[in-house]
Amino acid sequence: MSALTIFTDTEATLPVWHSNDAEMIHERLNAKNVRFERWAADRELGENPEPAAVIEAYQYAIDRLASEKGYQGWDVISMCADHPHKAVLREKFLAEHTDGEDEVRFFVEGTGLFCLHLDG
User: Fold this and answer.
1) Which of 66, 88, 100, 118 is buried deepest, with most CB atoms within 10 A?
2) CA distances (Å), origin 58, targets 38, 53, 72, 88, 103
3) What pLDDT digit, counting tens, does each position of 68-106 carry?
């Protein structure tokens, strides 16, 4: 399931908009030039799949995106509660930053949170 909650920059505790509807999320993000898609694996992955198996299961979508945008590389990261480097990896993703190029993230399972400052 996906969810989008929008807050103002001045009041981060009071949502001004929220939805779990993928089409509505797509519309809201697309209006800000943020691409939102939901992909389905082309096979059952089972529990704790190897990174190569994850890429193979989503290769059709990766290829489409790579062809469209010219992306040259991709990888898989697995972040489970018992990951030995969880704290270091989490810290890397917690630091607010900007990207000089497109960045694509997709989640096969679990939860991810992104905070985007889009209007200033």
Assistant:
1) 66
2) 11, 9, 16, 27, 17
3) 999 988 888 888 888 888 888 888 878 777 777 787 888
Please provide the average confidence, as pLDDT, over all residues in the chain: 89
Number of structural domains found in the chain: 1
Domain range spanning residue 28?
1-38
Three-state secondary structure readout of the chain? CCCEEECCCCCCCCCCEEECCHHHHHHHHHCCCCCCCCCCCCCCCCCCCCHHHHHHHCHHHHHHHHHHHCCCCCCCCCCCCCCCCHHHHHHHHHCCCCCCCCCCCCCCCCCCCCCCCCCC
pLDDT in tens, 22-46: 999 999 999 999 999 999 999 999 9
